[in-house]
Design goal:
The chain is an alpha/beta fold. Strands 1-2-3-5-4-6 form a six-stranded mixed β-sheet, sandwiched between helices.
């Protein structure tokens, strides 16, 4: 299908095209440092993974090919403001529909994670729909301090509330002030909650089936080439505004797990969805989730997934589409999938 690049009529800011392209000098520096980096001795459960990864990274992995794939999807950027008025350049990928009743939805990556998680999902939508019948406006941003988005002002304590404010400004700037949906896991889940309330090692250890090495190297290389590693730590640990979540998590970890009582997080009144995958790192039973949000859609599965969009894009899309139909209806609006 043709790229869905025609901007919505209600766009209120200057949206510009963006091309991912790291300088050749930096790419060669990365390769040289990788070549010089020693490999730690193998341990019983590592089975030479690091040594093999380095070999593939140096001799087979082609970053330019991955860059081309990123650029094959619509890439845009815009200056937005967070809740404190700080300006951030947000880079995002988008599929825009020509349908008047298309539903806006943003997919938000976590940490460690990036827009690369959603490339397969975007490809599925591009193959399934044309701009004339795409039921959604799909927005996949790089969070502030991640990948191609700019960093926050270094003199302030920056956290999830400000990240959510910046992305909310993005969605409003695109013309979706009347309402939109958000999907996120991990850090993206906390950003989504703020939306509703106020406006490579982990890849192997956290997943049941190891993702393809190529995908792991893609994400890790993106982190290094865009200086994401040092920048993103602040939005993971920063901001006094996150104290509610940190205090609640500490209480959960130390006390509540023995009492089997719900995690005390601020209640989200807007229609929310809940997906439970087996062996979640921090599992939340459906009954607990129902104590902190108005659930209109729930699923539980034995599939072990941490990076859902990357590992199971088809299953995630099915889940999200079911949630969209129910959440949009709960707001009094009609889903184009259920006309």
């Amino acid at each position: 299908m043709a790229d869905c690049v025609k901007l919505p009529a209600a766009v209120i800011l200057d949206i510009k095209p963006f091309k991912a392209q790291v300088g050749e000098e930096k790419l060669q520096l990365f390769k040289k440092l990788l070549e010089l980096s020693p490999i730690a001795p193998a341990v019983w459960d590592e089975e030479g993974l690091a040594e093999n990864a380095e070999k593939v990274w140096l001799n087979e992995f082609d970053w330019r090919k991955h860059e081309d794939r990123i650029n094959s999807l619509s890439k845009l950027q815009v200056s937005v403001n967070d809740t404190e008025g700080n300006t951030t350049e947000i880079q995002f990928q988008a599929l825009f529909s020509e349908k008047a009743d298309a539903i806006p939805i943003t997919f938000i990556h976590g940490c460690p994670g990036s827009i690369c998680e959603f490339l397969d999902l975007l490809d599925i939508l591009k193959k399934r729909y044309s701009p004339k019948d795409l039921p959604y406006h799909v927005i996949v941003p790089s969070l502030p301090d991640y990948a191609y988005s700019s960093g926050h002002p270094v003199e302030i304590d920056y956290g999830v509330d400000m990240v959510a404010g910046a992305l909310n400004d993005l969605m409003i700037s695109l013309g979706f002030a009347s309402g939109y949906l958000a999907q996120g896991g991990d850090l993206g889940n906390f950003v989504s909650r703020f939306f509703a309330m106020k406006i490579g090692e982990e890849f192997l250890e956290w997943t049941d089936e190891d993702p393809p090495l190529e995908k792991i190297l893609e994400d890790v290389t993106l982190y290094w080439l865009t200086d994401t590693i040092p920048r993103c730590m602040t939005s993971v640990v920063g901001s006094e505004a996150q104290s509610t979540f940190r205090d609640a998590e500490e209480e959960f970890n130390v006390i509540q797990v023995t009492q089997r009582t719900p995690l005390q997080l601020p209640y989200v009144e807007k229609p929310s969805g809940y997906s439970f995958f087996a062996y979640e790192i921090v599992p939340a039973p459906k009954r607990w989730a129902g104590k902190i949000a108005t659930l209109c859609h729930t699923i539980s599965t034995s599939v072990v997934v941490i990076f859902a969009a990357m590992e199971r894009p088809n299953e995630l899309l099915i889940d999200v589409e079911e949630y969209i139909g129910r959440a949009w209806k709960a707001t009094g609006k009609t889903s184009p999938l259920h006309n």
